[in-house]
């Protein structure tokens, strides 16, 4: 939230430290959900197909997020926007919105079933005899 503090030239070292920590933790935890969790939760006979769909959906979401942030981060004043872009909600509001979306994504991650040492077949119910 102290965005105006970090954009001043005197605070550039602190900004780099904050950026580095953000980048590290964004890739350390949530990034694992893009390749480890899909390999654990899909049944063995569908794993490769579902993992591919999951990866493609994640990449499509990254594209939407990157371009959406570019448009949303434009200043509200039409005279200050980059050429060819409509007015947006500003960088500060875009970062707040990004944080809220990330928090919602974290909540959805908790809905993913935990294997707890069971095989994928046991989790999916494939070993049960009808």
From TrEMBL:
The primary site where this protein sits is: membrane
GO molecular-function annotation terms?
Answer: transmembrane transporter activity
Taking every annotated instance into account, which residue ranges of this chain make up the domain Major facilitator superfamily (MFS) profile?
1-117
Localization = Membrane
Q: Does the keyword Aminoacyl-tRNA synthetase apply?
A: no
Alphabetized UniProt keyword annotations: Membrane, Transmembrane, Transmembrane helix
InterPro entries assigned to the protein according to its UniProt record, in alphabetical order: MFS_dom, MFS_sugar_transport-like, MFS_trans_sf
Q: Which PROSITE patterns match?
A: MFS (PS50850)
Indicate how the chain sits in the lipid bilayer: Multi-pass membrane protein
- Per the UniProt record, which residue ranges are transmembrane? 12-37, 49-73, 93-112
Q: List the record's Gene Ontology CC terms alphabetically.
A: membrane
Pfam family membership, one: Sugar_tr
Q: What is this protein called?
A: Inorganic phosphate transporter 1
